[in-house]
């Protein structure tokens, strides 16, 4: 009986677990306009770069907490500037849509 109770708890708790998009999901976007996406091999950050701009946009899902995407900008001097924090919700495809829409709104204004 304890085995069954354990399984029921597992099943019950699995409904509470939210799945969030990850770097692989984001890299599947490939590009937004002329901005290309890459993952830094050292830090694991998601970086958006433009061939003719000296600005990098950092937008890594779940950077400090699940479901949170901090969006920051670096300039040619390597200084960071916070743009916004985004909280994603819904299914993975909805989250990816939210991510792409928000990142695009940041990129078109640069």
How would you describe the overall organization of this protein?
The protein is an alpha+beta fold. 31% of the residues lie in helices and 27% in strands. The chain is built from 3 helices and 6 strands, in the order ααββββββα. The protein has helices at residues 2-14, 23-27, 92-107; strands at residues 31-32, 35-39, 46-49, 56-59, 68-74, 80-87. A 6-stranded antiparallel β-sheet has the order 1-2-3-4-5-6. A hairpin with a 5-residue loop joins β5 and β6. The longest helix has 16 residues, at 92-107. It is globular. The chain starts with a helix and ends with a helix.
Count every beta strand, where a strand is a DSSP E run of 2 or more residues.
6
- Return the string of H and E elements: HHEEEEEEH
- The structure class reads alpha+beta
User: What helical percentage do the residues reach?
Assistant: 25-40%
The biggest sheet, with number of strands, parallel, antiparallel or mixed sense and barrel status, is: 6 strands, antiparallel
Count up the helices. Answer: 3
Order of strands, main sheet, comes to 1-2-3-4-5-6
Radius of gyration: 17 Å
* N- to C-terminal distance: 61 Å
Tell me, briefly, the overall form.
globular
* Average pLDDT number: 88
Low-confidence stretches: none
